[in-house]
Every structure is written in C-alpha cells, then in structure tokens.
Amino acid sequence: MQYIYKKVSKLKYENMPLEINPKPDMLIRVLMTFKGLDRPIEVEGQKLETPERNGFVAIEWGGTEIK
User: Fold this and answer.
1) Any idea where the domains of the chain sit in the sequence?
2) Quick one: which of 36, 32, 37, 16 has its CA closest to 64?
C-alpha cells in the first residue's frame, strides 16, 4: 500500500485545544490526513516554510488515515 501526503493548510484549532505548562514561546501543530493507494501516483512537490525557532518550542505531530 502506498501513502501520499497531499496538501498543507492552516487550520483553526478551536475544537482541538492544547494546554502546555509552562506556555511555549512557539507552538507548531502538524496534522495530516492520508489515504492508502493501490498504486503510486505522481504529485507535485510542495514549498514548505520553516519558521525560525526561538525559546521554548512545542511541536505536535498527528494524523488520520482515511479508509
């Protein structure tokens, strides 16, 4: 089974609160939705911006598989 990560978008996290103590200087949340494929497909590469990290940085990675 092949997997593809297709799109990056900025989401509002109102329904997904995250509480960290002490509060980080920067919070990066990466949430992915992915789906298994029967065969590989061609996709265009993405240009991703990397923020400069300063101070205490918290990073959350998560994902959901579409079946």
Assistant:
1) 2-66
2) 32
pTM: 0.64
Q: How many C-beta neighbours within 10 Å does residue 1 have?
A: 7
62 closest CA partner among 18, 25, 20, 2: 18
Q: What is the pLDDT along the chain (67 residues), one digit of tens a residue?
A: 444 444 555 566 677 788 999 999 998 888 888 888 899 888 888 787 888 999 999 998 888 888 8
Q: Output the six-digit token pair for 22.
A: 């002490």
SS3 (DSSP) at 23:
coil
